[in-house]
Input
Amino acid sequence: MDEKKTYFNNLMVKYFQGEASPEEINHLYDWLAEDPINRSLFEEQHQTWMLLTKDAIASLDIDKEWDSFSSRIIVKRRTKVISMLSSWRVAASIVVFVISAAILYYLISTPEMTEVYAEEANIEHLLPDGSVVTLYKGSKIGYAASFVKEERNVTLEGEANFNVQHDKKHPFIVSGNNLRIMVLGTEFNVNTKAGDGEMNVVLETGTVSLFFKGNESENLILKPGEAAFVNTEEKSMQKSVNTNPNYNAWLTGNIVFNNTALEEVEEILEKVYHVEIVMDENLKDCTLTATFEKQSFDQVINVISETLGIKDSRSKDNIIYLDGNCR
Output
């Protein structure tokens, strides 16, 4: 065993015994963070120490010690008090050391997490395995530092599009609420906030398996062009052919309206362009047929206004108002 290993073995023992200085504890933390092998060694030492301290606590009969102390309190008061205090110190020290070891064990065994938040706009993020996730504004993902070594687990809050690198040995799993989406290599869109307790999953390529946490045997398989509608509260899933051409318009910038009610047009434009639109009630039943390919919001509004013969205006706080009567 080299000097470095000997040093850290001794340092771990000092830590468990409560004799390590603050500087030595920091040194130990740094060493544990350097290499998973170091953490494995610590875990082995920790397990051994837990067994030893468990035996030590079991062998210490506090009631017996107290009775012995009481019967001899007059004859050997000073000697026994010191002995009794020593026994209590041993018990207390063991408890303190075990708690300290458990805390450190928890800290090093809890994987370091990376969180990515699309706070102000849609963002594209490259995952450690080469997969690409595009987050819709206001959405967030999280994944562990061990992402490429085990299952590729990603948590999602909001909406995102995933383009996953193929890897049979390391399944890619997206967790949103209590739903799990498992893939090997594919592209799909997930919205964890489709409504109260509702989620939507639309598959573009490949295959995905949907199941609820703790119930992998009852899964729903999606094929390209299919969509799943999930109620996370009732734990129900239904699938159908995807008939919504604008499910990922926020990602592509391509929007298709085919005799679409203006109320739905409003919702889609608000999502794609991150704007607020207010329209007259009498306009909501008007319909629009048009296709837009990566056009600016102003261009889209101009086309809609001219096509339907309505007026648009913008307030100082950038709220867009639509009024008039449809042609």
